[in-house]
Design a protein that fits this description.
By secondary structure, the protein is an alpha+beta fold. Helices cover about 25% and strands about 25% of the residues. It has a single domain, classed as Ribosomal protein S21 (Hypothetical Cytosolic Protein, Chain: A). GO terms for molecular function: structural constituent of ribosome. Belongs to the eukaryotic ribosomal protein eS21 family.
């Protein structure tokens, strides 16, 4: 496919799961992708930045994603500092 500048670009770019590094296929509708916002620790408001986390179907199928599983996955991505401002306790 060509973009407006005339450069050849891919129509689809493959994604990988954040923790498993498995490729998420085109027809895979069981995977999820989330944007976790960054919160300013002083003000407590959204600072216009976010981190993207993709969770592949294997993790979704093997575990029901409870909040502690989600925190474990996001801790692996070094986002716990962001979640401390969002999650109570």
């Amino acid at each position: 496919m060509q973009n407006y500048s005339g450069e050849l670009v891919d129509l689809y770019t493959q994604q990988k799961g954040s923790t498993s590094n498995r490729i998420i296929g085109v027809k895979n509708h069981a995977s999820i992708q989330m944007n976790v916002v960054e919160v300013d620790k002083v003000i407590g408001r959204f600072n216009s930045q976010f981190k993207t986390c993709a969770i592949c179907e294997v993790i979704c199928r093997e575990k029901t994603l409870y909040i502690h599983d989600l925190v474990t996955i996001l801790t692996f991505r070094c986002l716990l500092g962001v979640l401390e401002c969002i999650l109570p306790g």
